[in-house]
């Protein structure tokens, strides 16, 4: 199988160097754009998850709350890592501007060989932000999964309503005698109805007069 022939890059050495520099600049800009978009996504999603989970935690009862707290820690660490990468990124750019000024304007050939420590820290904090975000997202999934499987993913309002229903059932049924007692509201209603019937019974005047006449005859 014949290998395809590779043609040499056309142009002089200076032209090839110029093309190389432009190509590297394009790749560097694309890489920087991707990192910026990734950082924005991490900050937006992590902040949103933190806000929603903190708001809902007060209404949710689960024995796996420690997993959720651990997820918060990693989300906060992800946001902090992104902001630190921004800071070191700006310092890296400042150093590159200084090196470029020394190399081109002051003709210092050694300036191009300087090691940019801030650039390495920027990449390290970017990687830390990505990994901590993924760990926090994984812990959130674990929290929801464990709570759902154990049947503990319930709100406090539903738990309070169930407690009220149990108390009401216990008040209706007497555990000692096993007899049922009417609720206080129903007792008051029944008493009011009975008194209303007694007061509303009509009185027959003829029957009353005849009764008085019998007493006088006797």
Walk me through the topology.
Elements: H1 13-57, E1 60-61, H2 65-105, H3 117-149, E2 154-155, H4 156-172, H5 184-200, H6 205-217
Antiparallel strand pairs: 1-2
Describe this structure in words.
Strands 1-2 form a two-stranded antiparallel ribbon. Helix 1 runs parallel beside helix 3 (117-149) and helix 2 (65-105) runs antiparallel to helix 3. The chain contains six helices and two strands; from the N terminus they run H-E-H-H-E-H-H-H. It has 218 residues and is mainly α. The N and C termini lie far apart (144 Å). The protein is elongated and about 95 Å long. It has a domain at 14-151.
Largest beta sheet: strand ordering: 1-2
Helix content: over 70%
Computed over alpha carbons, the radius of gyration is 42 Å
Q: Number of helical runs?
A: 6
Using DSSP, what is the number of strands?
A: 2
What's the order of the H and E elements?
HEHHEHHH
Strand content: under 5%
Distance between the termini: 144 Å
Shape from CA axes? elongated
Overall average residue pLDDT = 74
Category from helices, strands and their pairing: mainly alpha
* Low-confidence regions: 179-185
How does the major sheet shape up?
Answer: 2 strands, antiparallel
């Amino acid at each position: 199988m014949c290998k395809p022939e590779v043609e040499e890059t056309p142009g002089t050495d200076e032209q090839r160097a110029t093309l190389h520099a432009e190509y590297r600049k394009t790749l560097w800009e694309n890489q920087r754009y991707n990192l910026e978009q990734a950082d924005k996504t991490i900050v937006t999603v992590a902040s949103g998850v933190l806000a929603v989970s903190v708001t809902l935690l007060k209404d949710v009862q689960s024995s796996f709350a420690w997993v959720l707290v651990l997820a918060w820690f990693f989300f906060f660490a992800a946001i902090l890592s992104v902001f630190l990468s921004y800071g070191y990124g700006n310092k890296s750019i400042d150093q590159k501007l200084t090196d470029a000024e020394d190399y081109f304007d002051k003709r210092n050939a050694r300036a191009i060989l300087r090691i940019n420590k801030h650039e390495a820290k920027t990449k390290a904090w970017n990687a830390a932000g990505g990994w901590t975000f993924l760990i926090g997202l994984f812990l959130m999934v674990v929290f929801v999964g464990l709570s759902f499987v154990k049947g503990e993913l319930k709100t406090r309002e539903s738990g309070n309503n169930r407690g009220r229903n149990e108390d009401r059932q216990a008040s209706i049924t007497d555990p000692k005698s096993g007899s049922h007692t009417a609720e206080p509201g129903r007792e008051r209603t029944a008493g009011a109805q009975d008194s209303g019937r007694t007061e509303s019974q009509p009185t027959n005047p003829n029957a009353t007069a005849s009764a008085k006449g019998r007493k006088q005859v006797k």
